[in-house]
Amino acid sequence: MPSQNRRTFLKAASAQGIALGLTSAGIWLPRSALAQGAELKWADLTPGFTILISEYMQAKGIAKKHGLNLGKPTTYASVSTYYNDFVAGNYDVCIGSWDTFAARYLAGVPMQFVCAITTANMINIVVPKGGVTSIKQLEGKLLAAPQSTGTYRMTRAVVKELEGIDIETAMKVQNVDNPAASVTLVMANRADAGLSWEPNISAGIKKVADLRVLYNVGEEYKKKVNLDLPYFGVAVRKEAVARDPSIVAKLNAAFAECLAGITGNVNEAVQIVGARTGIAPEIMALAISSNRLQFKHISMADDKGRETIRRASAFLIRNQMLPKEVDRNFFAS
């Protein structure tokens, strides 16, 4: 058979095989199994906005629409356990801070970053009524903070570069293992300030009206470099991608649609999820309307998306919060 005709024949045979449900190994599978793929394990963290994402996606059937077989997420209350289980390979898809994923990737964990979904406007330092009025005045005082998180590292880098203060050495840092706990300690007058992220900030403000935001990490970064600082995003284990490379595009599409749906009708989204986030619907709505919880999909399949992470990682590297820049294999595309 002439080579050109042979190529045409093989292309047609391949297409026909896919149409009939034949895998590359010649094994027949139903079309539904090919479209949906093996089940992907994922997780969310309570209290917090990750449950808003996971519950909304399930309620609207978004994952299924994009050919993803996402099972019921495992819910965690401990941030460190949440990340450690992903690192150990106990689940496939994780929503977390991009720099935490970068640090784990550089340490040899087989994972890739799919997309960013929020900006660092979520990260805030709060103080009580009558408390300090500047970040400088926190020197020597007690800051409650989740030190195992990317939130802490990112905040430390931004404050160090923009304000010339290393919170690790200039303040007394009390570690907490849940982002809500740092705000609770401030409300109980057991800490001078608390580092956390939305919706924990809005939850505190709703309970104690004179609780104040002292420092918004994302806003301060943008003032300096005129770019959004990405924060939470989606990572996937490499072995899951190896099983089905198409899941990267599917995850990107599903999370983009999920964010568009939430921001397009915030009231509907928070009512669908209700209090299952561990946060009352009106508090979640306040977090979003305040522009502190700012959803923004940035795909790592795009050059512009990857550049956003490279610029942000350079910022952290300069301040010794990341050992080096990630290579191109960190980005799922």
Molecular structure report:
The protein is α/β, with parallel strands linked by helices. It is 47% helix and 16% strand. The protein contains 16 helices and eleven strands. The protein has helices at 3-20, 31-36, 50-59, 62-65, 79-87, 98-106, 150-163, 167-170, 179-187, 200-207, 217-225, 238-243, 247-264, 266-273, 281-289, 303-318; strands at 43-45, 74-76, 93-97, 111-118, 123-127, 142-145, 172-175, 193-197, 212-216, 232-237, 295-299. The chain has a five-stranded mixed β-sheet with strand order 7-6-8-5-9, with helices on both faces. It has a four-stranded antiparallel β-sheet with strand order 3-10-4-11, sandwiched between helices. A two-stranded parallel sheet has the order 1-2. Helix 3 packs across helix 14. The longest helix is centred in the first third of the chain and has 18 residues, at 3-20. The protein starts with a helix and ends in a 15-residue tail after the last helix.
Strand-and-helix sequence, N→C?
Answer: HHEHHEHEHEEEHHEHEHEHEHHHHEH
Structural class: alpha/beta
Number of helices: 16
Strands side by side in the biggest sheet? 7-6-8-5-9
The average pLDDT value, as a whole number, equals 88
**Which regions contain 5 or more consecutive residues with pLDDT less than 50?**
1-35
Secondary-structure topology with pairs:
Elements: H1 3-20, H2 31-36, E1 43-45, H3 50-59, H4 62-65, E2 74-76, H5 79-87, E3 93-97, H6 98-106, E4 111-118, E5 123-127, E6 142-145, H7 150-163, H8 167-170, E7 172-175, H9 179-187, E8 193-197, H10 200-207, E9 212-216, H11 217-225, E10 232-237, H12 238-243, H13 247-264, H14 266-273, H15 281-289, E11 295-299, H16 303-318
Parallel strand pairs: 1-2, 6-7, 6-8
Antiparallel strand pairs: 3-10, 4-10, 4-11, 5-8, 5-9
Helix pairs in contact: 3-14, 7-11, 10-15, 13-14, 14-15
